[in-house]
Amino acid sequence: MKKLGLTHKHLLLYIITLLVVVIGDQITKMIVDHTLQLNGSYTIIDNFFYFTYSHNKGAAWGMLQGHMYLFYVISFIAAAGMVYYFMESKEYQKLYRFGLVLVFSGMLGNLIDRVFYGYVRDFIDFIILGYDFPIFNVADMAICLGVGLILLEVGIEEYKIWKQSKLNA
Prior knowledge:
Distance between the termini: 39 Å
Helix content: 55-70%
Order of helices and strands: HEEHHEEH
Low-confidence stretches: none
Shape: globular
Number of strands: 4
Number of helices: 4
Strand order of the largest sheet: 1-2-3-4
Largest sheet: 4 strands, antiparallel
Strand content: 5-15%
Radius of gyration: 19 Å
Oligomer: single chain
Structural class: alpha+beta
């Protein structure tokens, strides 16, 4: 832990985040699985927000359906990469580290579905300005938020480097 620059507080935060995302993802999927029929929908806000239960046998937007072995391999490689980049990250890169934890947690939540069911259970459905977005779940939200935090951290670091180069010029 010392080598990583992790305090007990940060380690506990990362573990709690992982557990909240994975358990929350699985519980919400279980609730939807038991309350809605497949392709059934429940209106939350008419013409905007629904719970619509679907099974995704592919990746995002249903791509690569029927290639489940590929998702196992990709998940394993992605997990190893995330652990590696977390271990190589610096103590001050808090957004980056938290982003990696969120992406890892989301990947794990969807991997659990793929291993036990052969598909990912999705249910969050938005229609915005007439566009029906692909249906997603809590794990997908964690992945998107995590990627956003990683990009934000990288952007902040690049801005600092750019600003410093202007001061030194």
